[in-house]
Amino acid sequence: MKATLKSEWRKVTTTKLWWVLALVMFAYMAFLGAVLGFSFVQSPEQASASAGGGGGMSGLEAAQATYTIGASLGYVFPLIAGALAMTGEFRHQTITPSLLFQPKRSVLLGAKLLVNLAMGLLYGIVGTLGAIAGGAPLLGTIGEGLYLGNGEVLGNIFFSVIALAIWAVIGVGLGTFLPNQVAAIVVILAFTQFVEPILRVGLAAGGDAADIAALSDAAKFLPGAAAEALAGTSFYAASGLDLLARWAGALVLVGYAAGFALIGRFTTLRKDVT
Amino acid sequence: MQGSAIQISGLTKNFGGVRAVDTLSFSVEPGVVTGFLGPNGAGKTTTLRMLLGLVEADAGTATIGGHKYVDIERPASTVGAALEAASFHPGRTALDHLRVHAPLVGVSDKTCGEVLDHVGLGAAADRKVGGFSLGMRQRLGLATTLLGDPGVLVLDEPANGLDPEGIVWLRGFLRHLAHDEGRTVLVSSHVLGEVQATVDNVVVIAGGRLVHESPLEELVAMAASKVKVVTPDADGFVRLAQERGWEFETVSGGLTVMGASPAEVGAAAHAEHLEIHGLAGEGMGLEEVFLRLTDPRRGEEAA
């Protein structure tokens, strides 16, 4: 297993994808952090009102939402990175030499999941640092400071990083389940950018309107919602959508990762490699 | 470095309704280079992929030294394989390609560099594979197989894309690995001429079935027996060929006899007092023998 982990680690670090993605993620998170910080600074009441919260947002809530923007809007980066780690093997047919050197397919998949968990931590740290770098200078200009010494905020930041790391593992599972690279990327972009946001708002609103609790509850079990529950706060939550408890969010998110990986193991990785 | 024997027995694989490999059995011995020949689509690559655990056989077994590939501990240290489709990430350098796999055969970065030197890619070690020619990719594929210093080498179409100089180099290299170092070398090709000067034994398949397995010399012997006879007494010769059980074709000025040497035909004509104006052995090229062996109609005639 150790040799396979080393091999998988080298697969990731010997092409430039990982640092290009990390760089873009940092820049994008810094940009979003700055935009969010700016909107809070400009008109705190309006920002919270337009976000649907109704009540005024405190400086603490603004800091929490800004610093965890990665878990809310940046998770597509570790997700794509994880998916490409597997789909790339099929796209470039490197799956053949990979399986010649490690014919135990479960070991190969396991090593890929673990290495990408580590890479996910890196994306989580880089993305969260980006959000802080972009948002903190602006947040610092209002009221009560940066909250970077606040235990609750630090907890949010920590679990936001963990959530982003798990997204990378979900990516590997998804890439195994959908080894066609183009299909995987299309599904990821469509789901994260359109389907899940619409479902979350739609299910919650529809459930509330029709008074069907199950419908509103279902929205909480979507992976993005579970990740935000793990982070403990979010852009969406600040908009008034309910989240699961942190531990439940963690379980749901890990469940998605394990589920996709298992399905991939018993579909794609059970097939002949031709 | 004594290699292990490869044993294929009763190997069968269906893809959908098509039988790609049909109860195929043959063996490959160490110390010689064995050519695995057949036209495109004959089932060569499928057979090799079953041998290497990439494709699951429907029936039969394929073993190396008595073990299935997936059961071998550190398999790439026992068997080095380069398959036709074995591809590389275009953004990875040649050296990094080997470094990715090195941990699984327990070799150092230094060894990776040495193996690249060995196949003549030392100068290109830090270049990205995306810019490599087909010949360079073949060399890198070969380097990958040699990384774990295995006793058994399985190479699918290794001469594809090599320039003439590269083919000569490959020939010497493979013969050295087998003859001098005692390794087992199995080389597939769809062109007999490409490996004719390299291989000691041949295994020929067509339509997923074994059609011929022998040392190369036997295939060469099969090639030589075609004799052109120029004679005014064609009828007499037709009778002679029928009596002796030789295959023949009548051509202008005489006939062509298959399955006998010029000396045999001459002696028979002399004994029968048949008049001959010309007698010439026409070696049916090896390639022609190969084509006849792998002709899809051949199976129908037999059936």
The number of distinct structural domains of chain A comes to 1
> Could you tell me how far the N terminus lies from the C terminus of chain A, measured between alpha carbons in angstroms?
25 Å
Helix/strand-derived class of chain B?
Answer: alpha/beta
- Number of DSSP-assigned strands of chain B: 13
**SSE series of chain A:** HHHHHHHHHHHHHH
Biggest beta sheet summary of chain B: 6 strands, mixed
Structure commentary:
The complex is a heterodimer of chains A (274) and B (303). Chain A is mostly helical and 274 residues long. In chain A, 79% of the residues lie in helices and 0% in strands. Chain A is globular, with a radius of gyration of 19 Å. Chain A has one domain (2-270). Chain B has helices at residues 44-51, 94-101, 109-118, 134-146, 164-180, 192-195, 216-224, 234-244, 262-272, 286-294, 296-302; strands at 6-15, 18-28, 33-37, 59-64, 79-82, 152-156, 184-189, 201-206, 209-215, 226-230, 247-251, 254-258, 278-281. Chains A and B meet through helix 1 and helix 7 of A and helix 2 of B.
Features:
heterodimer, A: 274 residues, mainly alpha, B: 303 residues, alpha/beta, six-stranded mixed beta sheet, four-stranded antiparallel beta sheet, 11 helices, 13 strands, disordered C terminus
